[in-house]
Design a protein that fits this description.
By secondary structure, the chain is an alpha+beta fold. It has helices spanning about 5-15, 20-30, 65, 70-75, 80-105, 115-120, 120-135, and strands spanning about 40, 50, 55-60, 110-115. The termini are far apart.
């Protein structure tokens, strides 16, 4: 069944840009390990989802749709409004690269996880963060 523009617009307004399910899942795992963090820090370029300011570690939880997972294959899936969606998501992909480069040039460790990665392997994702924390503390 084809959705009306109003239905699509409503659905898009419901998309969260913070405290998404994947962020909450990863943050809960970190909290249970006693790992404390800041969330959605606006003063840090790119607005990382999880931040360890003193250690300069920025973590991003990227949803597959908005950040272009498997983009060369997925962009063929857009049947309507291609002139809007394809450039929008390609700009998001480009922005992610810009954020990574800028933060790394300022001495940050940048960690990015796909949403499905967090859902399937939450503990492994938390392990990656924990290792980065331990490495930074030992420097």
């Amino acid at each position: 069944m084809k959705k009306t523009e109003e239905q699509i617009s409503y659905n898009m307004r419901q998309v969260k840009n913070k405290d998404s399910d994947i962020e909450l899942l990863l943050r809960k795992e970190l909290w249970q390990r006693g790992i404390r963090y800041r969330k959605n820090v606006r003063k840090i370029y790119g607005n990382p989802d999880i931040v360890f300011i003193g250690l300069k570690i920025a973590v991003f939880c990227d949803s597959e749709f908005w950040h272009g997972y498997n983009w060369e294959e997925r962009k063929k899936d857009f049947k309507s409004n291609q002139d809007f969606w394809i450039p929008k998501i390609e700009r998001n992909i480009e922005r992610d690269k810009e954020v990574n480069e800028k933060l790394k040039s300022e001495g940050w460790i940048v960690i990015r996880f796909w949403g499905k990665e967090i859902k399937k392997e939450t503990k492994r994702c938390a392990d990656v963060i924990q290792v980065a924390i331990e490495e930074r503390k030992n420097v």
